[in-house]
Amino acid sequence: MTSDTPSDAFYDILRGVAALTGNRVVADLARLIGQGMPPELWIAFNHKQIASKRWLVDALAEALPRPKGPVWVLGAWYGVLGALLLDDPRLGVDKVVSLDRDPACAEIAERLNRRHVADGRFSAVTADMMQLEFTREPVRPGLVINTSCEHLADVPGWVASLPPDLPVLLQSNDYYRELDHKSCVATLEAFKEQVGLSEIHFSGALPSKNYTRFMLIGRR
Ligand SMILES: C[S@@+](CC[C@H](N)C(=O)[O-])C[C@H]1O[C@@H](n2cnc3c(N)ncnc32)[C@H](O)[C@@H]1O
Question: What pLDDT was estimated at residue 36?
Fold first, then answer.
């Protein structure tokens, strides 16, 4: 599939799937694609990406639901995870801030989450997570999610920049072959050591065909 695949066919099919399933995220995706297919959206929505985000949402619902403040998603790409978080009533998420350093992401993330932007529940920010200072934010985050730890050159340095005790959900993987990956870990234990959390409520590994994804939920 390429970005010049006719998007109106996908639009019609996805509207049909949304009508069949009643899934609001699929309806939002259909509307986004109806306006033209953003490059790499097909990767952000592929079955492996969605399986790992479903895993995340289910684990969060068990381990640390109802955050006491906005949820920041860092390295958030096109805001797919934000859409899933806001759609799941088990999580009780009031607001998502979706941050990526790629300036192409914010506009697409806000179009995907248009309903939530209108309700004041979603905003997208273009910034480098290594430069963030959460202590300067007017509202302390209730949870910080980073599913892109493998993309950072200095994961321990980034974790150290977070406020102490902050609830966090972190993912990384052992996909060393990917050129953009700078901090992959070989095992779940290596990931625990890399991030050095003070509390861990959930730890797990999700194997897929080419790599294994690791997830930790706890506090900085
Ligand atoms: C390929 S995507 C998502 C990968 C992740 N494993 C996932 O499944 O969600 C990685 C994203 O992280 C973003 N990113 C990488 N380093 C970043 C940084 N320092 N600050 C903000 N965003 C960053 C990239 O722009 C990209 O959109």
Answer: 86
